[in-house]
Amino acid sequence: MRDLQGLPPAARRYPGQIHGFASIPALIPQANEALAELATLVRQELGSR
For the whole model, what pTM was predicted? Predict the structure, then answer.
């Protein structure tokens, strides 16, 4: 597993969403947006190493 120390912190708020909403995309459509954004950030960071 790659060492991820030194990564810049990132935060994004999804107003109106419950804690853990991203784990239930079948019920909460905005979860797909959150997961896609997370995947993009991870790909960008791992690709730059």
Answer: 0.72
